[in-house]
């Protein structure tokens, strides 16, 4: 999973059938320090996340498994709203790569 | 999912059987500001997207799930045509990474 | 899918059973301008592609779906030989990122 | 799989049903020299890994296969705690890419 | 698939059940010129690869398909040991990107 912050909404009227009724949120992935990493994605949401929330996102085929029928053509879903994180500082320095 | 803009078409006469009759569009992923991110991909389209449209693209194995039979050898499909987006500015600055 | 150019062949005598008899080609992904993007990959080919051909490559689990039995341990397959592309210039500038 | 170091914990009260009771750890991928590579991810853990452990992480749909029922909406799981590694130095220099 | 060079071994005593008895090798992906690309990964091996071998690696969910039962929680497997490659030089210049 990846951590991210919800930054927006997307609306699409014309869409594949499987997406009907799904809320779609724009998420900016962040690291444990809250720094943006990688690039934005759009995730389905069924647990009531909103703009500003820190969330956990599951990507790829596993995101279909939020539904029993597993037939949604989606590749990202918000699976949790983060309450808190605890990160060990020191020891391993976090990557200082530009894409961290 | 990722947001993108349709920038072109691809035609292939010789192809795997599963691709017969599928429209294939070249999509440039973009972020919520409309800025190109990552690299171009080719997505199947069944909902009538065309050049210039802002679209939502599902990637990976989930893209097969637009069809009941789920046997298409495709890894990207346009699942929605974006009407509008709403993005919270401020608070979290968007990544200024070159690849955002 | 991604566009690419076939640049070579790979031969492996010792291999997993599922790969027996599959032609394996080295592909350099390219964008719609023919510029190399990302890094080389090796794709299975059943449609007769050869060095110099512009091709469409499906990656990930969907690449197994070229076979009914779907049991091949492959993650990339050539699904089409590109005849032509049509790309809208202007409007959206293509990413000038180094990895585009 | 990728090698990584566990650097933290994540807690989420509101979440998709499939995640109930799963421990979630923040992992920083590292290469064989212990140098951070790529960006942080959050992995489920069932084998008792903790902060500071060097671990092996399986990503994508395969991470569901730690459970018989295979219905977890997760895309990363810790599958092993690394005891030791042996790396051949010389011959092939490791990539000096910034993202290695 | 991707080409790579086996550079090391990983041992883990505490691990998910599905990994019991699987040999795990550290692989540095390389391009057709033998130049390191991307970042190291750990792949399961059943065909007897060893340090210094040039190999083909299948990633993602397809890597489970080396086993009939398909229940391994792995996301990378060595599917072939490369005997030789033939690469067309000229025409298309290889990407000179740092990550090629």
From TrEMBL, chains A, B, C, D, E:
Task: Name the UniProt key words of this record, in alphabetical order.
Answer: Bacterial microcompartment, Carboxysome
**UniProt xrefs under Pfam families:** EutN_CcmL (PF03319)
Q: Which SUPFAM superfamilies match?
A: EutN/CcmL-like (SSF159133)
The cross-references to PROSITE patterns, in alphabetical order and at most eight, read: BMV (PS51932)
Q: Where in the cell is it found?
A: Carboxysome
Q: What is its main location?
A: other
Against Gene3D superfamilies, the record matches this protein to: EutN/Ccml
List the protein's name: EutN/CcmL family microcompartment protein
What is the originating organism of this protein?
A: Chryseomicrobium palamuruense
At the highest ranks, the source species' classification is: Bacteria, Bacillati, Bacillota, Bacilli, Bacillales
């Amino acid at each position: 999973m990846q951590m991210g912050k919800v930054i927006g909404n997307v609306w699409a009227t014309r869409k594949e059938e499987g997406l009907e009724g799904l809320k779609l949120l724009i998420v900016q992935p962040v690291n444990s320090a809250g720094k943006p990493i990688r690039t934005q994605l759009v995730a389905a949401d069924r647990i009531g996340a909103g703009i500003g929330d820190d969330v956990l996102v599951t990507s790829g085929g596993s995101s279909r498994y939020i539904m029993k029928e597993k037939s949604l053509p989606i590749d990202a879903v918000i699976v949790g709203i983060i309450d808190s994180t605890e990160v060990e500082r020191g020891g391993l320095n976090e990557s200082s790569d530009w894409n961290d």
